[in-house]
Amino acid sequence: MNDFSFGLDSLEKTFEALRVRLQGPKPGLKAQLKMVTSPRRGDKTYLDVGDSCLKAGVLVLLYPRKEKLYLVLTRRTSAVAHHQAQISFPGGRMDKGESAVEAAIREAHEELQIMPDSIRILGELTPLYVPPSNYCIYPVVAAVVERPDFRPSPIEVSEIIEVPVEHLLDSINVRQETWPLRGIDVSVPFYFFKGHKIWGATAMILAELVDLISSITEL
Q1: Which residues fall within 8 angstroms of residue 172, CB to CB, at 6 or more apart?
Q2: Which of 55, 122, 195, 205 is the most buried (most CB within 10 A)?
Q3: CATH code of the domain in which 118 resides
Q4: What secondary structure letter does DSSP report for 37?
Q5: How many structural domains are present in the chain?
Q6: Pairing of β 54-65 and β 135-143
């Protein structure tokens, strides 16, 4: 099953194995740091900043397409408040009294019209602190049994990017370049997919997911 080609039975087994794995110890910061820029802007984690950060829930949605396992990312428009034109997971700021799961599901519906009642929550990855925006991102891993009928919000989403999980598992697609950022040259690792360079917080979240899924395929 390493190529993630499957029927419905093996799909359910994969989702259940990932759900169980998410309940136990996670790769956490060690995995996230594989895709961090260098020099890194600060070394604080979400535990260090506590309630002083803004909190956001994002949806890491897994689904079958062409008998393979995919996840969905979006390119944000220039009209959003933070991380304009960047590639990210569907998601956004938690409203008062809202959990990460509730925020992730709500935002995914607003951005892509993913129907809340179709989503099965598998668990949560390790939260990630993003110093430039002072956001703590809480990634929620979920699954659906059929590819959603994505209908992007023109205000928030400029492009939908559907990535096969097996593409992320192949180390040949992890690359690194030096970019001028914040007035200095920065070494930037990224996942390369069809011309897209998936980096920053999104890549760090993906790195932990890749480690978890790799541990399942090795069982």
Answers
A1: none
A2: 205
A3: 3.90.79.10
A4: -
A5: 1
A6: parallel
Closest CA to 191 of 142, 205, 65, 69: 205
Q: Which residue has the tokens 């996670």?
A: 26
Range of the domain at 102: 8-169+201-213
Amino acid at 113: Q
Indicate yes or no: pTM above 0.85.
yes
Give exposure, 141-169, as e/b (b: 16+ Cβ within 10 Å): bbbbeeebebebeeebbbeeeebbbbbbe
The 10 Å CB-count burial string (b at 16+, else e) for 1-20 is eeebebeeeebeebbebbee
178 vs 184: CA distance, rounded Å: 10
List the one residue out of 31, 73, 112, 79 whose CA is nearest residue 197: 73
Reported as half-sphere exposure (CB side, CA atoms, 13 A), residue 201 has a value of 30
User: What string of pLDDT tens digits covers the 219 residues of the chain?
Assistant: 445 555 556 888 889 999 999 999 999 999 999 999 998 887 889 999 999 999 999 999 999 998 899 999 999 886 555 555 689 999 999 999 999 999 999 999 999 999 999 999 999 999 999 998 899 999 999 999 999 999 999 999 999 999 999 999 999 999 999 999 888 999 999 999 999 999 999 999 999 999 999 988 654
